[in-house]
Amino acid sequence: MKRISALVVLAVCMPFVSFADDIAQAGRAIFDASSNAVATVRLVMSMKMSMPGTGTQEEESVTEVTGTIIGADGLTVVSLFSTDPASALQNFMGSMAGELEGLQIDTRVKELTIVLGDRKEVPGKIVLRDKDLDLAFIRPVQPAAEPFPYVDLAKAGQVQVLDHALVLHRLGKVARRACAGSLSRIEAMVEKPRRTYVLPTETSPNFLGAPVFALDGGCIGMVVQRYTDTTSDTSSGPDMTSVVIPASDIAEVAAKAPMEAEAEPEPVKEEPKAEPKEEQPEASSPASEA
């Protein structure tokens, strides 16, 4: 009797084991085909913070984020939030504007490097920013001698809620920037103001700039940051979450990416004010003295 029960359990479980193997096999195929198109982008950033009465503080930091190569010429896209957290921070803290009146934060990317899967380092430059979609597009400073491996955004993946998805991202220096694949599911779909996909919240914040694939190999899109400033609602603060924007939206903006870098705005220099002239006393005439 026990033997029959064990056989029944085995018969029931076998289809699920086979299904799990199929998912893993599909995921590995995507990983092998696209992992080299996922890069580490190293940013050297300068941040200045000033506030009336406290002076100006400046500090430099180095950060590494995941980027997706989307063109054979090396065109790479990252989350704009990763390259300019100061602007997002000011918007995100909008509800505290009364307490932080006069706060000015300026972030500049001083140096940018695309680190490829084979550890080759390619100096890059930001050529286009799209604040609405949270995208920053990067080109190599020098034309590439050989074509880059890239994710073909034209081969878009189609998914529905609760479908499996594979996220490819780069680990940190401790893990030697290895490419990692994370199986996830589409938790929700948001249709307005434009379609976005939502991954489980406990994992998605770590995936900024990472491409997301359907298990048929098509690219669903890339993980970006979304935030809202709810200053009108005093009962709650701003809201921030990560979403996946469709590959077609990224491709549409990428087509407008120029070859040259955007010019950094020059800081406004205040002209020295002219000192007021002292009024000279009028000279008295000899007749008046008499």
Describe the protein's architecture and organization:
It is a single chain. It is built from 5 helices and 13 strands. By secondary structure, the chain is an alpha+beta fold. The chain has a 6-stranded antiparallel beta barrel. It has a 5-stranded antiparallel sheet with strand order 8-7-11-12-13. The radius of gyration is 27 Å and the shape is globular.
The global form is globular
List the quaternary state of the chains: single chain
Strands in their spatial order, largest beta sheet: 1-2-3-6-5-4
Helix content: 10-25%
- The separation of the N and C termini measures 141 Å
Give Rg in angstroms: 27 Å
User: What percentage of amino acids are in beta strands?
Assistant: 35-45%
- The total of beta strands comes to 13
Query: What is the typical, i.e. mean, pLDDT?
Result: 80
Low-confidence stretches: 265-273, 284-290
Q: Helix/strand-derived class?
A: alpha+beta
Number of helices: 5
H and E string: HEEEHHEEEEEEEEEEHH
Largest pleated sheet: 6 strands, antiparallel, barrel
